[in-house]
Amino acid sequence: MEKIWIKSYSAGVPAEIDVGAIGTIADYFEEAVRQYGERAAFISGATGVALTYRELDRLTLRLAAYFQSVLKLERGTRVALMMPNLLQYPVCLFGLLRAGYVVVNVNPQYTPRELEHQLKDSGAQAMIVVEVFAHTLAKVIANTGVKHVVVTGLADMMPWAKRVLGNFVIRKVKKAVPPYELPGSVGFLEMLKVGASHSFSAVAMDPKDLAFLQYTGGTTGVSKGAMLSHFNVLANAKQGQVWSDPFLDTSVELISITAIPLYHIFALGSCLGFIGRGGSNVLVADPRNIPAFVKVLGQYRFVSLPAVNTLFNGLIHDKDFAGIDFSALRFAVGGGAAVQRAVAQRWQQITNTPLVEGYGLTECSPTVTVNPLDLKEFSGSIGLPVPSTEVSIRDIEGRELGIGEAGELCVKGPQVMQGYWQRPKETADVMTADGFLRTGDVAMMDERGFLKIVDRLKDMILVSGFNVYPNEIEEVVMLHPDVYEVAAVGKSSPVTGEMVKIFVVKKRPELTQEQLLAHCRENLTAYKVPREVEFLDELPKSNVGKILRRQLRERA
Description:
The chain is of the alpha/beta class. Among the domains are: 390-456, Luciferase, Domain 3 (Luciferase, domain 3, Roll), CATH 2.30.38; 461-555, GMP Synthetase, Chain A, domain 3 (2-Layer Sandwich). The strands form six sheets. It has an eight-stranded mixed beta sheet, sandwiched between helices. Strands 12-13-14-15-16 form a five-stranded mixed beta sheet. Strands 2-1-11-10 form a four-stranded mixed beta sheet. A hairpin with a 2-residue loop joins strand 22 and strand 23. Helix 2 crosses helix 3, helix 4 crosses helix 5 (134-140) and helix 12 packs across helix 13 (341-351).
């Protein structure tokens, strides 16, 4: 498809990025340290405690030296991170990547079943986990290949924690930690102390080396690890930078609010983009606490706020939100799920800044398209392909379609993953012969190059920006001894965009909704747990016995 979208780019945005100048994330980070050493790299939104680029450099070298010299892990070893947005996260992230390891991001809310799958599938040999989630790891570690565990406390990166939080608060936090047993594990601060007595040996790396196994359901099937290289992730960061550079004064310190979890690729990509500018990322560990989130926003003159629709919706309904100073805000970008028009319109009324929607997926590191940042109002589209990106709208036979025709959105560019970890068949299923990634989403393009998502090719459910796959929900529900059949579908939700609804045929009439939901909560992360249960005498099926989810979606 001809790149007709380039004519719609904002002034100053190039058609291509210089892919030849992209190195490794280690090089990228070290250059930021050289240029912006005394600036704040990360700030804890909860306490205001900050880490400068220079301090972060020192701590990451200690961590890298510990993993190299004490644990003696070889380059390329997979290391899992299981933590919310704490200051420990960037220390772990950049320390591991500088030592040549592969980061496996893990959702802290995973159930034991989900965590075990990801650790076994990735082949992770080490893990860094926050103490409040260590009990989950303790339940499954014997079934995985994890040999080394580092446990960190919530206040470990706060040297003035006692003064800032008070002894009572710290004791209260400690009491809230569920009991666990992880023999041989080491504390985070002890690891840094030991690491300081060892030297870090710089690792020769190639930009095409693997940096992340970022887990996703892909377009079909069970959770899979998208193989993202240093090159993939930095190319996408660069695409985001050139998109926004015309609208920012990069000579001053820029502040971005990082409220989406850093284990999510949307937040991770946004964070890396600001690192290259010497920006400050304000970390919000629990954005669901909207009043506390609003207080954090009130303390900073932030230029950027990437978030999902549910967070924007929560903010605009808070009584104190309108009193914030938005004079520095240059762009609020919505991703991870569709932005609702009513939310975008109210956002602009309050902040005087349009809510700009983008589109991406884990397999693309993640950004594929975004609206121009000089947009005057919400467009309802997912925007334009970012520089150095090709898109193609194709029918079921793989033929390219024209303007205004709906078909599967296919993507090609430097941000597209290397494939799914140890899953060649699944990789082949989503890649076309000419090198495009099949997204599984149905889209159409207008004459200016703007794209709009029409529908999902698959049955994936999108809850607050997270992919939920009906097959997984159904498998868990079927584990209940009193369930005969089940089908899971997405239902529209004003809070989360979509929610999970299940239709169930009972084996035993006494089975209740409460019993079934309790079973789901034991085996599924909270956002995957069904919000509605409807019991039926039978499920609609095709002639060959396939459950007709479309009919159930219509019923829902």
